[in-house]
Amino acid sequence: MPPTRRTRQQPLSHGRIVATALGLLSRVGLPDLTMRAIGTELGVQQSALYHHFANKQAMLGAVADEILARAPRPSTPDEAPWQARVQERCTQLHAAVTAYPDGADLVMSMWAFGMGGQTPFDELSLLLREAGISPAVAPTAARTLLHFVYGHAYDEQSHDVAARSGILTAEREPSDFGTGLRILVSGIEALLP
Amino acid sequence: MPPTRRTRQQPLSHGRIVATALGLLSRVGLPDLTMRAIGTELGVQQSALYHHFANKQAMLGAVADEILARAPRPSTPDEAPWQARVQERCTQLHAAVTAYPDGADLVMSMWAFGMGGQTPFDELSLLLREAGISPAVAPTAARTLLHFVYGHAYDEQSHDVAARSGILTAEREPSDFGTGLRILVSGIEALLP
DNA sequence: ACCTGAACACCGTTCAAGT
DNA sequence: ACCTGAACACCGTTCAAGT
């Protein structure tokens, strides 16, 4: 008797697989997000998933994109100082990846591997170019911001996992993310002519 | 006929296992750094390793510490400006983790999980406190620097792996690391009274 | 105390066969 | 075209048994 097997109503599709994977991720975490578990949840064999994605990594790339797509849209007006806009976007991305267990790990890996998560980089690069950062440096600054956002989120989420395993790690102040972000924005500001 | 099985001369030990794992890591990478492969390399059963480490993660923590311990020692004199000292240390750490395939991934994971890599954080925190950064903010600044160092190195190494798999990712300028580091140091400088 | 040998409970991926 | 069912080639970890 399988634990949770839903009868299949609709045919499989990219979107249905990603939605199911996302729901499963939030319940069991990345290590238990197996192709078998996703198949069981959808009421199909694990091998059926390979008709829609070339391999597991391609599917995880789509999941990472969905996590980022669920980040709230910026509310700061376009006329606001670029510092405020950058800080808002980074805070939203931080919230988006920490909304799912191991979300930072997943998004960071997929972005580094070139299999997803390109949008935040493009958005931040554009925002910084509009702010007057030279086109040669804007991508570097955007990457540096994202390394911080994902790295910090990864740290927080690993801290949670480690704490659950009874491992001691350094405590993290709630203000820590904001302070780090201000360091970065000040540093980028110093590059302006 | 096993591929490479060395006859065992000395008894197993922490140090011998770590050294063997490090050699294997540099040849085959993290995904193929299995307990079986390490055992074969040492001429023992994989289960023998569990008499010296509680589990694979604990062993990988020791490997991460060894990678960091092999970073070159600072040559910049203690009297030099803190900016130069921070930049040198970060550049050395960057070199240390990129010296082994998947080194950044390994060190970042173990540090986040609290199973290794504590030394760089302690060193940078101290250095920044000596520079006049308030004790409340110095750890945050140190963490922000390390997120950048490891994040950037992780990116570069993933780029290599992806390229080998024929996946296209954005090109990276060699000056990119230095530019990002200067952004961070400028930002930390802005926190000084 | 240290290690062997075998097993357990899993993985991702492939592929002939069905519909 | 889409999916099943079974297999393949692996994993990390455990544990009785040997020395």
From TrEMBL, chains A, B:
Pfam families: TetR_C_1, TetR_N. Residues 11-71 form the HTH tetR-type domain. GO terms for molecular function: DNA-binding transcription factor activity; transcription cis-regulatory region binding. Residues 34-53 bind DNA. One of its GO terms (biological process) is response to antibiotic. Keywords: DNA-binding, Repressor, Transcription, Transcription regulation. InterPro entries: Homeodomain-like_sf, HTH-type_TetR-like_transc_reg, HTH_TetR, Repressor_TetR_C, Tet_transcr_reg_TetR, Tet_transcr_reg_TetR-rel_C_sf. Coiled coil: none annotated. PROSITE patterns: HTH_TETR_2 (PS50977). PANTHER family: HTH-TYPE TRANSCRIPTIONAL REGULATOR RUTR, TRANSCRIPTIONAL REGULATORY PROTEIN. This is TetR family transcriptional regulator. It comes from Janibacter indicus. The lineage of its organism: Bacteria, Bacillati, Actinomycetota, Actinomycetes, Micrococcales.
